[in-house]
């Protein structure tokens, strides 16, 4: 028996604001607007999710509590990862055009992708908003760091982030909690990087190394932020934003609500609400609101805009410029791993630490001396982590190497029995890994559009992607690979596998794989070349706002979440201000 | 909540933090029964979604490897990871059960596993006129020696090496993700604690410090 009374009620009520999507941007908008007293309806396509609800908890489970030992057969990042969904979702296809590649990751749950993300919380720096002025490529944002700084500061205080103030011009200081000390392999990386002139600083992650309020606990160092934290000691929109928004009594949260389109008044052209399909009953509903905020993710927001067609908006709502869907861009990403012989047979102790690297390297290069624009940062992995599916795989490629045995003699690769068992023990905790995350140059001919032939199981037309990397990104990946090898050599390590070469674009991940897609409805001052203004308000529809990464003009090498949060907070304040002035 | 209280409560409840407002509760009532056709015939374990629990239950009910194949896997996995002074063997750590499941979960392993087991029985028949399970431990090692070293393999055993490499990898993953295997490695985490940095003696051993 399905209780649909709340859906029927939501149909009758006219909300002050209807928000689509409960991830970082939607959660922040819901938090800000409900706190200001607005009656808000929050639509989420996925299921309810609270990281502290026992039926959701995977944190602190052992690998043997999964019959597949945490393998990624059902969840792309493994059985314990807090992402319901992935690059492929049954009944929710998307397509690609002209043989190009784009993989689209979606989490269908309250909090969206923030439940499992890496918590890397980097502010954009002054240069990141003004790239065209600096290198002539892409476009500048209509706002700058000075416009965003007060909001970054507020986000730091509201949510909590650890790190250190280093006075770096394009990696601005923040309001930081104390960072965790480096792990052993991280100290070795730092030492090696020093000889190479690569800067290494404590990471900046939204994990509470100290309590910041009574609602959230403190990190207890299990390294499992990707499983979502039952103590709410890391940032997930579900626990940190949606939950307090619900506590105001001003929030109506509708899970299982797959938005179909923004409804409009044919006379005024204003948004009147959002129609959606209940994913369980497949019934169609409309929720009405005075203001509509889309925060469904860069991809879903573009899809919603493009699917919201009417005689007044034949190309989709807010798309008189034709720019919706264009300039989609994901981070560049390349990685390499290595084994460090000096770490063989190491003493074991609990070095789980926080979820993720305790150190990182912000971009240090001088592009005027390099053959590519923009930069990347490096994230580091390694250490004595908890084994899961895949542990020990491929030892035949390692234990036959020169000087890898205790007595210094070369032994035959592979093998079996007691000596093999010794090899696994010997190599445990001796691995390190390197991941570069860089800034691409957004291009008009990288885009998503509505596939004219395909609908999903709800009957909603799906996205079709067209995305190619340019030489800029490929050369950046080559530089990453060269850098990784320099660090590995400086550590006295042995790189694993063959160095990725030109045949694989130097290991450059396919577009979408880094899950940092942004820019599908970019902001600007010119309504003919941008979708929203500098307040993320649609040029064409004054009561329609975007609060995810769709308005990003570019993405820096900084991971989008902290800027999504700051921008959504700024947009929410603008909405409140405009309501007070009766402009909305 | 103070860390101390939180650590005390962990594992007992969800810290009381799960309480949601009535609207969210009402919505949660919808969960588990969003589709009348999909009402769960099974209990959904904590940490799984309904779809996942259904798929897991289906895999558990499926029979793929037969008794003889599982016996052969047990013998091979114990040759790869035998008991020693420090820990138990692969089969004691439940590796057979893990392999039985994972070849159904990852169907790409089905043919390599079944065919590899046939290959090793064929080799055993040719040499000793008996199945691999029926020959002596010494005779088994004779065959294993020919397929355990990928870089030294004679051409006629190359398919055997491919199979043995798969067996080695699955055995290692199954063993080191078991309780016995985690303890064997000395993994000490997955428990609430306070990270205070690398122990002093370890820093000294590697000539590193936090002051650099």
Characterize this entry briefly.
Chain A: Its cofactor is FAD. Chain A has ten helices and 18 strands.
What does this structure look like?
Chain B: It holds the Pfam family Gluconate_2-dh3. Chain A has a domain at 1-162 and 237-330 and 443-468 and 518-584: FAD/NAD(P)-binding domain (3-Layer(bba) Sandwich). In chain A, helix 2 (24-35) packs parallel to helix 10 (561-580), helix 4 crosses helix 10 and helix 5 packs across helix 9 (471-490). In chain A, a hairpin with a 6-residue loop joins strand 8 (257-264) and strand 9 (271-278). The mean pLDDT of chain A is 97. Chain A has 584 residues and is an alpha/beta fold. In chain A, the strands form four sheets. In chain A, strands 1, 2, 7, 8, 9, 10 and 18 form a seven-stranded mixed sheet that branches. In chain A, strands 6-12-13-14-11-17 form a six-stranded antiparallel sheet, covered by helices on one side. Chain A is built from ten helices and 18 strands. In chain B, helix 4 packs across helix 8 and helix 6 (110-128) packs across helix 8. By secondary structure, chain B is mainly α. Chain B has ten helices and no strands. Chain B is globular and about 65 Å long. The longest helix of chain B has 19 residues, at 110-128. Chain B has a domain at 67-185. The chains are: A alpha/beta (584), B mainly alpha (212). Chains A and B meet through helix 5, helix 6, strand 7 and helix 8 of A and helix 1, helix 2, helix 3, helix 5 and helix 8 of B.
């Amino acid at each position: 028996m399905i209780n649909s009374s709340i859906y029927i009620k939501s149909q009758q009520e006219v909300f002050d604001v209807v928000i689509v999507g409960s991830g970082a941007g939607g959660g922040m908008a819901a938090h800000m607007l409900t706190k200001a007293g607005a009656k808000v309806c929050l639509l989420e396509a996925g299921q309810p999710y609270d990281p502290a609800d026992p039926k959701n908890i995977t944190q602190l489970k052992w690998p043997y509590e999964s019959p597949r030992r945490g393998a990624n057969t059902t969840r792309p990042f493994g059985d314990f990862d807090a992402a319901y969904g992935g690059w492929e979702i049954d009944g929710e296809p998307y397509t690609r055009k002209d043989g190009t590649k784009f993989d689209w990751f979606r989490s269908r749950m309250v909090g969206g992708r923030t439940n499992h993300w890496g918590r890397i919380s980097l502010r954009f720096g002054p240069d990141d908003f003004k790239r065209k002025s600096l290198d002539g490529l892409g476009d500048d944002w209509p706002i700058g760091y000075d416009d965003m700084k007060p909001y970054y500061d507020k986000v730091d205080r509201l949510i909590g982030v650890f790190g250190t103030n280093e006075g770096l011009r394009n990696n601005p200081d923040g309001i930081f909690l104390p960072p965790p000390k480096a792990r052993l392999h991280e100290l070795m990386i730092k030492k090696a990087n020093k000889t190479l002139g690569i800067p290494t600083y404590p990471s900046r992650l939204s994990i509470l190394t100290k309590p910041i309020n009574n609602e959230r606990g403190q990190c207890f160092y299990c390294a499992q932020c990707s499983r979502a934290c039952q103590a709410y000691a890391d940032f997930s929109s579900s626990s940190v934003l949606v939950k307090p928004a619900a506590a105001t009594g001003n929030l109506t949260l509708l899970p299982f609500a797959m938005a179909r389109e923004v409804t409009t008044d044919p006379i005024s052209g204003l948004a009147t609400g959002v129609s959606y399909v209940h994913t369980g009953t497949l019934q169609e509903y409309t929720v009405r609101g005075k203001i509509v905020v889309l925060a469904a993710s860069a991809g879903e927001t573009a899809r919603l805009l493009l699917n919201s067609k009417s005689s007044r908006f034949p190309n989709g709502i807010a798309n008189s410029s034709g720019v919706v869907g264009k300039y989609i861009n994901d981070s560049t990403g390349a990685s390499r791993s290595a084994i460090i012989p000096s770490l063989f047979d190491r003493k074991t102790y609990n070095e789980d630490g926080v979820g993720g690297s305790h150190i990182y390297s912000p971009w240090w290069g001088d592009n005027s001396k390099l053959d590519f624009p923009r930069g990347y940062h490096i994230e580091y992995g390694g250490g004595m982590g908890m084994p899961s599916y895949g542990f020990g795989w491929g030892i035949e490629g390692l234990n036959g190497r020169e000087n890898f045995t205790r007595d210094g003699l070369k032994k035959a690769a592979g093998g079996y029995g007691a000596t093999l068992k010794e090899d696994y023990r010997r190599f445990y905790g001796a691995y390190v890994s390197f991941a570069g995350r860089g800034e691409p140059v957004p291009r008009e001919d990288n885009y998503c559009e509505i596939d004219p032939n395909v609908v999903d199981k709800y009957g909603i037309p799906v996205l079709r992607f067209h995305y190619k990397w340019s030489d800029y990104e490929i050369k950046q990946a080559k530089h990453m690979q060269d850098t990784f090898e320099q660090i590995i050599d400086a550590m006295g390590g042995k790189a694993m596998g063959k160095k990725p070469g030109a045949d694989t674009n130097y290991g450059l991940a396919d577009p979408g794989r880094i899950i940092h897609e942004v820019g599908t409805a970019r902001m600007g001052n010119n309504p003919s070349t941008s979708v929203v203004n500098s307040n993320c308000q649609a040029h064409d529809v004054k009561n329609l706002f975007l609060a995810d990464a769709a308005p990003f003009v570019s993405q820096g090498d900084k991971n989008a979440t902290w800027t999504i949060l700051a921008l959504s907070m700024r947009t929410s304040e603008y909405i409140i201000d405009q309501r007070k002035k009766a402009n909305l | 909540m103070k860390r101390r209280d939180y650590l005390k409560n962990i594992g007992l409840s969800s810290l009381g933090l799960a309480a949601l407002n009535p609207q969210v509760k009402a919505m949660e009532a919808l969960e588990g029964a969003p589709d009348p056709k999909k009402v769960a015939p099974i209990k959904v374990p904590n940490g799984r979604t309904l779809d996942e629990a259904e798929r897991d239950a289906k895999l558990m009910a499926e029979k793929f490897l037969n008794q003889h194949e599982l016996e052969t896997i047990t013998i091979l996995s114990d040759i790869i990871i035998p008991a020693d002074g420090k820990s138990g063997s692969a089969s004691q750590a439940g590796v057979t059960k893990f392999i039985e499941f994972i070849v159904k979960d990852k169907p790409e392993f089905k043919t390599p596993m079944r065919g590899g087991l046939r290959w090793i029985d064929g080799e055993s028949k040719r040499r000793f006129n008996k199945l691999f399970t029926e020959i002596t431990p010494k005779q088994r090692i004779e065959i294993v020696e020919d397929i355990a070293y990928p870089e030294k393999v004679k051409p006629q055993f190359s398919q055997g090496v491919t199979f043995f490499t798969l067996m080695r990898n699955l055995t290692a993953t199954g063993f080191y993700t078991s309780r016995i295997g985690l303890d064997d490695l000395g993994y000490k985490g997955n428990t609430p604690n306070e990270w205070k940095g690398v122990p002093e003696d370890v820093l000294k051993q590697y000539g590193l410090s936090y002051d650099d």
